[in-house]
Amino acid sequence: MRYQISGKQIDVGEALQTHVKTELGEVVEKYSQRPTDALIVFSRNAHQFVCEATVHLSTGLTAQAKASATEIYAAFDGCREKMDKQLRRYKRRLKDHHRDRTQPVEFGGGSSYILAGSGDAEASEPEGLQPMIIAEMEMRIPSLSAGEAVMQMELSEAPVLVFRNERHGGLNVVFRRDDGNIGWVDPQQ
């Protein structure tokens, strides 16, 4: 598994990196035999240390956890415990959905844009009708079944997930509705 351990305005020493690799490696290997990479970022928020971890699995799932504490090791341990709980909770679902999958999930590229919103809800339309793009990022679009996409969305606690449907190759969207149910958009070919 590839690790990317960094700090935002914090020096992350060798001892902490070794601790992170050992502890997180044990948790991920316990519940998932095929992790691909992990991104761990340490930062400070006033007097507390914050640890954010993202682990990408070859099944296409992305597990995320975040914790904070007054000491950096305690912040990581809290994050590790949340990751452990999350992976344990989804272990059975991962096994059931991916028992027949022999190859890792394929990812395609895509662009993501953040558009500037108008501060005033009743502001008039701009003359050119072209929104101002304030951020542009590359995204990974996984190739999944609808059930796997719902599981990925729940695991990452995201409100929406765009994916390529394995059945027919078209782009699909799953999202959490206001009533708590899951919506699925599958455009006709």
Summarize this structure briefly.
Helices cover 30% and strands 38% of the residues.
Please give a handful of descriptors for the protein shown.
189 residues, Double Stranded RNA Binding Domain, alpha+beta, 2 domains, SHC Adaptor Protein, RHF-like, ribosomal protein, 38% strand
**Structurally, how many domains make up the residues?**
2
CATH superfamily of the largest domain: Ribosome hibernation promotion factor-like
Order of helices and strands: EHEEEHEEHEEE
Overall 3D shape: globular
**Strand percentage, roughly?**
35-45%
| Oligomeric category | single chain
N- and C-termini, Cα separation? 38 Å
Major sheet size, sense and barrel closure: 5 strands, mixed
Structural class: alpha+beta
